[in-house]
Specification:
248 residues; 60s Ribosomal Protein L30, Chain: A
């Protein structure tokens, strides 16, 4: 099921309260991705994002995706506490209504030289365009199945770091997370302009069969030496089709 967020001129895949599973620009609009040259703390990042969006002549509701970096992986309870804090700004911007959140998100934890506090790496927003080219951002997804239950219950090959365990984690994330979400919008790997992976483990043995042969690396792969945001998740991905990207 696809939701409509008309105030931001984009569609989204409903998920949990802290983020959607993906955002896609409406006809007549495109997504612009803005990456910070340095990590900036959460409050500063929101302020800079607001400034950039407003200077582009867009309402704050055009904010449709963000990429965050955290100091270390959270416990389940710690992750929920962080998310309750994170959505306050989205509520103030008229995006999060207390139940549904249309904003796509990735939030990972650099293993080396992590930030001292949760910080912004990048954000995306919609803007008018005369181009007919679609654009979308798929949220970060790891090897945890959707639905109820704890992460321990939902994680594929929980705590299994064997080569075959990692392969299955990569396979699940590629298909059940990335491909299913893109399919919901009517897209596939052939439409992507960027794919990112996050892990501190060597997954090279799974690269050819689970990613290359599926067409996931048509634009290459950006690998971040980082962990997913919850303890004992080991591999995460996100992907996008964005024609306009800038660094500030």
């Amino acid at each position: 099921m696809i939701g409509e967020f008309s105030a931001g001129n984009y569609r989204f895949i409903p998920s949990v309260f802290q983020y959607s599973a993906g955002a896609a620009a409406d006809d007549g609009y495109e997504i612009e991705r803005v990456r910070f040259d340095r990590l900036v703390p959460l409050a500063e990042g929101f302020a800079l994002a607001a400034k950039h969006i407003q200077e582009a002549g867009r309402p704050l509701t055009a904010f449709c995706a963000c990429e965050l970096r955290s100091p270390a992986a959270f416990s389940e309870e710690g992750f929920r506490a962080f998310n309750l804090h994170y959505v306050k700004t989205l509520s103030e911007w008229g995006i999060f209504d207390g139940t549904t959140n249309p904003v796509a998100r990735s939030n990972v934890c650099p293993e080396i030289d992590p930030p001292a506090e949760p910080s912004f790496y990048a954000f995306s927003f919609t803007r008018p365009t005369s181009s007919k080219t679609p654009s979308f951002v798929i949220s970060g997804g790891a090897e945890a199945r959707e639905g109820g239950g704890t992460y321990v219950e939902r994680t594929v090959r929980y705590r299994d770091l064997s080569p075959e365990g990692l392969r299955e984690k990569v396979r699940f994330t590629t298909t059940s997370q990335m491909e299913n979400r893109m399919t919901a919008f009517g897209f596939g790997w052939k439409d992507t302009t960027g794919v990112q992976a996050y892990s501190v483990h060597d997954f090279h043995h799974a690269l050819v069969d689970e990613l290359v042969r599926r067409g996931a690396l048509r634009s290459g792969l950006t690998w971040h030496y980082a962990r997913p945001p919850v303890v004992d998740l080991e591999y995460e991905m996100d992907c996008r089709r964005v024609m306009r990207e800038v660094v500030i």
